[in-house]
């Protein structure tokens, strides 16, 4: 396997670490050379890509890729990678056989707290989720045209080392916002890496919800983290009167419970099936700070 990761950030690096044992070569892009050491530690050859025309090193590495992970968020013009591959995937990556596109469960929009799966209607509310759904469809067309297997991974709220409720407790920024009936799914970044690696190694396509088993009220997660840290949780705050940015408030405009049975049916077993397992492992392993 020869792997190219566009957007080797938090999730991309986790995928690289899980695929390193089976890869002959791995490359990843970032917008800043300041992150090159992070990529190297994950086994990636670091490359700069900030949109537009790719440099010769990137083109050379891409030409040898057999597997590609797309983890770049759409901008105001859409997914920049769809423009890069406008002439077709095989024009730049003739040996490409599998693409993994990292999307979001936000594409489902608001379902009033009901359960959704991969066959549920997508009715995104926020502008960013609308853009994600458009990108999903763009990748589906692109991969179908070149007969490349596409796995679309719809990720829920990502946490892991350095990005979790324990960090918020430690910094004093944790809030227990309460909106009756509101729940969110979450996913530990290690499960993103492992699930994506399984799909890549087996060259499986389709749409998959990569999310934990237990959609839960956000205030419960904060309280559990405080309990692990041995401190009093912050007081509950009514969502209706809370001082929130428009983006923060927009997350609470979508309420759903996301099922993950499709990826489990392939044999995947989540290492962290709920927030308690994930936060406890971070605390007990002293890896929560990152």
Automatic annotation (TrEMBL):
Keywords recorded for this protein, A-Z: NAD
Signal sequence coordinates: none
UniProt KW Nucleotide-binding keyword: no
Pfam family, one: Epimerase
Domain of life (superkingdom): Bacteria
Domain NAD-dependent epimerase/dehydratase: 101-210
Gene3D superfamilies in the record: NAD(P)-binding Rossmann-like Domain (3.40.50.720)
Cross-referenced PANTHER family: EPIMERASE-RELATED
Name of the featured protein: Nucleoside-diphosphate-sugar epimerase
Biological source species: Hoeflea marina
Source lineage: Bacteria, Pseudomonadati, Pseudomonadota, Alphaproteobacteria, Hyphomicrobiales
């Amino acid at each position: 396997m020869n792997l190219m990761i566009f957007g080797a950030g938090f999730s991309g690096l986790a995928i690289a670490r899980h695929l390193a044992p089976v890869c002959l070569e791995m490359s990843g892009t970032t917008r800043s050379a300041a992150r090159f050491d992070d990529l190297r530690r994950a086994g990636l050859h670091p490359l700069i890509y900030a949109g537009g025309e790719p440099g010769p090193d990137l083109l050379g590495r891409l030409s040898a890729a057999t597997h590609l992970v797309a983890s770049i968020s759409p901008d105001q013009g859409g997914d920049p990678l769809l423009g890069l591959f406008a002439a077709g995937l095989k024009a730049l990556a003739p040996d490409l056989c599998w693409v993994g596109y990292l999307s979001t469960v936000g594409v489902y929009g608001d379902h009033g707290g009901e359960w959704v799966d991969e066959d549920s209607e997508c009715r995104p509310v926020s502008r960013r989720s609308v853009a994600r759904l458009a990108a999903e469809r763009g990748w589906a067309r692109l991969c179908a045209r070149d007969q490349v297997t596409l796995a679309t991974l719809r990720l829920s709220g990502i946490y892991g080392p350095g990005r979790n409720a324990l960090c918020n407790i430690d910094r004093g920024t944790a809030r227990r916002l309460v909106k009756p009936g509101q729940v969110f799914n979450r996913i530990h970044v290690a499960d993103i890496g492992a699930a994506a690696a399984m799909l890549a190694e087996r060259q499986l396509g389709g749409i998959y919800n990569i999310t934990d088993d237990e959609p839960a009220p956000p205030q419960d997660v904060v309280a559990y983290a405080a309990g692990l840290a041995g401190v009093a949780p912050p007081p509950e705050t009514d969502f209706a009167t809370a001082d929130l940015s428009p983006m923060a408030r927009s997350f609470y405009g979508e309420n759903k419970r996301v099922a993950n049975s499709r990826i489990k049916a392939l044999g995947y077993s989540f290492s962290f099936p709920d927030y308690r397992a994930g936060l406890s492992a971070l605390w007990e392993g002293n890896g929560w700070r990152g």
